[in-house]
Amino acid sequence: MEQNLTMRELVSPQAVVASLDAPAKKDVLQNIASSAAALLGKESLAVFDVLWERERLGTTGVGQGIAIPHGRVPGLDKVSGFFARLAQPVNFEAIDDKPVDLVFLLLAPESAGADHLHALASVSRLLRDPKLCERLRQAKDAPALYRILTETAVVQAA
Q1: Helix (H) or strand (E) holding 113
Q2: CA 49, 149, 2: angle at the middle one, nearest 5?
Q3: Is the dihedral of CA 27, 142, 106, 87 positive or negative?
Q4: Which residues pair with 155 in a beta bridge?
Q5: Secondary-structure breakdown of the chain: helix, strand, coil percentages, each rounded to the nearest 5
Q6: pLDDT tens over the chain, length 158 residues
Q7: SS3 100
Q8: Taking the mean position of all CA atoms in its chain, how far away is CA 135?
Q9: 57-82: string of b/e by CB count within 10 Å (b at 16+)?
Q10: For residue 1, what is the DSSP state?
Q11: Catalytic site positions
């Protein structure tokens, strides 16, 4: 069954951080895992472990200052997204060796199947738009970031 999720269904206003202060990649992942876990009612370390294990397989720094860490978390009931703009860019070992300042975390249930991959592809397409990323970098606060993220995007889910 093909289903379209809007970015509003994927990301809540509470899941957007305008200025995450973290000096290194591991700190970014720990901080965003902690925020996501609190919103989802999950254990912070469990979420971080999923992200860190995925990162060990290869960087989720996709280039152009963007990282899309992702993973499957036991007990989730739906795919959930979290967005953070970093206070200072950090080395994320990105594929283009540029530091990362925009991070979109995607967490999925263990049983998500193709939904996780479709959401990941949609987020990647969204963040490939240089004009949108520039607007995200210039936005003054979390509500403005949320508006930019949710104004047009539809996430494909199978």
Answers
A1: none
A2: 75
A3: negative
A4: 5
A5: 45, 25, 30
A6: 235 567 888 899 999 999 999 999 999 999 999 999 999 999 999 999 999 999 999 999 999 999 999 999 989 989 999 999 999 999 999 999 999 999 999 999 988 777 788 888 889 988 999 999 999 999 999 999 999 999 865 444 43
A7: strand
A8: 17
A9: eebbbbbbbbbbbbbbbeebeebbbb
A10: -
A11: 70
Encoded tokens for 48 = 């971080």
Tokens of 28: 């970014």
Helix (H) or strand (E) holding 40: helix 25-40
List the beta strands (DSSP E) in 45-135. 61-63, 66-67, 70-73, 80-90, 100-109
- Rounded to whole angstroms, how far apart are CA atoms 53 and 50? 5
> How far is it, in rounded angstroms, from Cα 101 to Cα 88?
7
The pTM score is 0.91
Residue type, 155: V
* pLDDT of 5: 67
